[in-house]
Amino acid sequence: MALISRITVSRLVETNQVLPALSQFVFRRNISAESTDLKGILANKIPKQQEKVRNFRKAHGNTKVGEVTVDMMYGGMRGIKGLVCETSVLDQDEGIRFRGYSIPECQKLLPKAKGGEEPLPEGLFWLLMTGDIPSKAQVDAISKEWAKRAELPPHVVTMLNNFPAQQIHPMSQLSAAVTALNTESKFAQAYAQGTKKALYWEYVFEDAMDLIAKLPVIAATIYRNTYQDGKGIGAIDTTKDWSANFTSMLGYDSNEFTELMRLYLTIHSDHEGGNVSAHTVHLVGSALSDPYLSFAAGMNGLAGPLHGLANQEVLVFLTKMKQELGDDIPDAKVKEYVQKTLKSGQVIPGYGHAVLRKTDPRYTCQREFAQKHLPNDPMFKLVSQVYKVVPPVLMETGKVKNPWPNVDAHSGVLLQYYGMKEMNYYTVLFGVSRALGVLASLVWDRALGLPIERPKSLSTEGLMKAVLKG
Description:
Layout: H1 6-15, H2 38-60, H3 70-74, E1 88-91, E2 95-98, E3 101-102, H4 103-109, H5 121-130, H6 136-148, H7 154-162, H8 170-180, H9 186-192, H10 200-227, H11 242-250, H12 255-267, H13 276-286, H14 291-302, H15 310-325, H16 331-343, H17 361-373, H18 378-397, H19 408-417, H20 426-447, H21 460-469
Antiparallel strand pairs: 1-2, 2-3
Subcellular location: Mitochondrion matrix
GO biological process, one term: citrate metabolic process
GO cellular component, one term: mitochondrial matrix
């Protein structure tokens, strides 16, 4: 008989019963790095990381890692080092690194679908969770697991189908549906039963897996109800990967579009912990709200025009330029149009970033995809032209720290090319992708026992007094 693991013993001592969601652990041996059991691998990794963090805090708990200025406090906390995010780090010169791997490295190393060239999002999720590049077998196991968990409860289906979809923004539908899904939360159920804090991460993991599995079904239902005929999305195919099932439910059968979705869902997944959606999920989760409520809150932040809505604004900008200037616009006319836009007090959407000081690698990989699959598309040509013209114009102003394009400067044009012209829906796609990063982070938040987030605030008068006194 297999030895009962230490973690199982603690459960048995705690409750005299094993909750169904955790019954797989009762007779678990130590598993190998090649195992396809993601939760089991995490169960081996988490105690080591917990010990590492405990020792680090014990040795360096009072070490200062930065200073806070008045400008930082009034300027959206830009540059304040105040969060821990295990899954990714954004370097101002290199761009995003997922567990230390750049986007080009992820494109090269992460497993791909048969005949495909872009990484499977399941592989990135494994990487975000574990820090390890997964095997194809491990990625296939995640695909099958998500397909198995994808079915929505009847009340959520009824809710989605009863929405007056033409009147409610797709992001509002997404947020409401995810909130309603919290009836399925294993974490909420376990917390109500008084489970120990050391076990929180396991229930959050279960919720994260369930939610990620169900999001494409929710998102596809919203798309069909809002923009198509409202007919059913069809059944999940357990032989397909997560992205392929998603595009099929959306009603697209192009292999190229499926490849684009694999790339899109991978690169939009995570951008360290300080952006609005990621920070919101972390903040709400720190109050021990379940992952459904936490993620829904993050989606309400993502819906904002300064966050996930930006790619839509890029398309509006480009479309308006074409309407005013026509086709085959000379560079000089583009430059004149950009300068006119800036002089009117507007920004050039898709250009600049709060942290990055170079072209966003997420923009670059989408540009490479376009160069391969749609090199002669008029909108892609305009995007390329703007890429050439805008940075020098922004640098001439002397006011812009980063004149280079970010991810939003390109993604909408690709979606338009393959027929998805409904711009209000683009943020829903962003949300489906962002779930991979923020929910992986939420698992680690609970694994490390991070407490409720509660920074100190001051009134302007109090801050003035503190500064003058200092």
